[in-house]
Design brief:
- By secondary structure, the chain is an all-alpha fold.
- 89% of the residues lie in helices and 0% in strands.
- The chain contains 2 helices and no strands.
- 0% of the residues are buried.
Length: 53
């Protein structure tokens, strides 16, 4: 870890930590929702192809 990263980390206030945690949770939630949507779309495509045959 570089000195500038260490310095920047030590200067963070609690509010920025809370904002960062919230941002991480939002990103995780959006990744999960995207994955579920992708799996659902794939399953629907496979069902549609299966019904069409």
């Amino acid at each position: 870890m570089s000195t500038s990263t260490l310095l920047r980390h030590s200067q963070r206030n609690p509010f920025s930590e809370i904002r960062e945690a919230r941002r991480q949770r939002t990103l995780q939630l959006s990744a999960v929702v995207s994955a579920i949507a992708g799996v659902t779309a794939t399953a629907l495509a496979l069902v549609t192809i299966g019904l069409g045959s």
